[in-house]
Amino acid sequence: MNPHAELRCSSGCDGSYGFDTLVHRCPACGGLLQVAHDVDALAARPAAEWKALFETRALRGPWPFQSGVWGKKEWTAPAIRDEHIVSLGEGATPLIPSARLGASMGLADLWIKQCGTSHTASFKDLGMTVLVSAVRQMIADGHSVRAVGCASTGDTSAALAAYAAAAGIPAIVILPRGKVTRAQLVQPLANGATVFSIDTDFDGCMAIIDRLAVDEGIYLANSLNSLRLEGQKTVAIEIAQQFGWQVPDVVVVPGGNLGNVSALGAGFEMMRALGVTPALPRLVVAQAEAANPLYRASRQDWRFEPVAARTTSASAIQIGNPVSIHRAIRALQRCGGAVEQANERELADAARLADAAGLFACPQTGVALAAVAKLAARGEIRRHERVVVLSTASGLKFVDFKLASTTNTPIELPGEYDAVRRALDRAVPA
Are 41 and 4 in contact (CB under 8 A)? Predict the structure, then answer.
């Protein structure tokens, strides 16, 4: 079979565009372009055959189909020719049970999807491999692309810089000065991106890069560009595959710019439409109380108003005017989803609980876990429901947060066996 996908206006305008279009908005009305798959053609292959095909590629098979994204190529970016794929082994991340953490929340079936084990230590790799591969193909086909650029709170810039470097394409990164951790800042610098540190917040950076995309020929790599979401939706497919092609009852994701929840919704809906899975999970978006526009919208009949995001430890989701807000609302409405928030103490406490259970949770994951605890306490998540929390990045990107949120410290001793033995007896009595 020869699967087909194209870009169409999300506002319903006529016309379609190939993956090689250099714009992310509809030329007629300015609405966002979104990827549309020929679902009827995909449905010509029975669901059992899709499952078997994806199983044969999982972490094996010819390169680049070992990738968690490109192993699902027919469902993500069939228009990208194999020779132009830029892969760094993204995706295929662990899905692990966390019985101790679940028990502390009154849940019997809690799982953590460890997206932070991907190449640049966040889920952003999944979308960037698709977008940069598309740009590489555009250049090979004769299109002029000056550079690929993004605004970022840290993780998007790391993914863009790495994949652009692998492809040999210039990368432009715009960051809010002082609002990105050192570990996140060093990643795009090390990979050779041109990094602008701007005296504004993320929303101000986003306005600048959006204008540069229009006026200066910079190809936009933020999630306004729906090619990103095609890669990110493979998280949903991986979760189902790891559960033997069943979906959990609830999936909880931290929400900032909100591309991730709309991508997850698209992935779960695609699987159901093709008969691969029987149902949709309930999606829950968790926001920091300091940057909670979606939470507020959910409390006022989904009427959205931007907010001025305040400082939060969950800096990667410190966004007051998310570009994917309307796509996220549609995804939540289709699956009966919900939104919860967490304040700074709640997210730090949840991260500490996770660490005590063997995890190393980033602050965004702390927000998601705090939301789970609150929903479970109110009975909105029931004890025996299967719950998956997306851990979106590695805690190693947020070392200052981790040091501030632990009371554990090294025990400094002289270099003598007896001193160590006595300290051991005090710390762990025989």
Answer: yes
pTM above 0.90, yes or no: yes
**Domain boundaries defined on the chain:** 95-121+229-404
Please tell me the distance from the alpha carbon of residue 95 to that of residue 72, in angstroms, as a whole number.
Answer: 18
pLDDT of residue 24: 84
The CATH code of domain 95-121+229-404 reads 3.40.50.1100
Q: Kindly provide the residue ranges of all beta strands, DSSP E only, lying in 250-322, ordered along the sequence.
A: 250-254, 282-288
Show the beta-strand stretches assigned E in 199-347: 218-220, 250-254, 282-288, 338-342
Q: Residue 384 class from Cβ within 10 Å (0-12 exposed, 13-18 middle, 19+ buried)?
A: exposed
**pLDDT (tens digit, 9 = 90+) per residue, 244-254?**
999 999 999 99
CA–CA separation, 118 and 305 (whole Å): 33
Each residue's pLDDT tens digit, 13-30: 887 888 888 888 888 888
Report yes or no: 339 and 317 within 8 Å, Cβ to Cβ: no
Where does residue 41 fall: left (phi above 0), alpha (psi -120 to 50 degrees), or beta otherwise? alpha
Q: Please answer whether residues 22 and 138 qualify as being in contact, where contact means their C-beta atoms are separated by less than 8 angstroms.
A: yes
Strands 194-198 and 218-220: unpaired
List, in sequence order, the alpha helices (H) in 201-258.
Answer: 202-215, 226-232, 234-242
Residue with tokens 């714009």: 23
The half-sphere exposure of 321 on its side-chain side, counting CA atoms within 13 A, is 10
* pLDDT tens for each residue of 96-130: 999 999 999 999 999 999 999 999 999 999 999 99
Between β-strands 147-151 and 33-37, what pairing exists: parallel, antiparallel or unpaired? unpaired
Task: Provide the β-strand partners of residue 198.
Answer: 176
Low-confidence ranges of the chain (pLDDT < 50): none
- Alpha-carbon distance of 179 to 202, in angstroms, equals 9
Gap between the terminal Cα atoms of the chain? 66
Each residue's pLDDT tens digit, 409-429 = 999 999 999 999 999 999 999
Residue type, 249: D
Could you read off the pLDDT of 321-347 as tens digits, one per residue?
998 999 999 999 999 999 999 999 999
Dist CA 11 CA 72 (whole Å) = 27
With the CA atoms of 169, 87, 34 and 270 taken in that order, what torsion angle do they form, in degrees rounded to the nearest 10?
180
**To which H or E segment does residue 330 belong?**
helix 325-334
How many CB atoms sit inside 10 A of residue 379's CB? 9
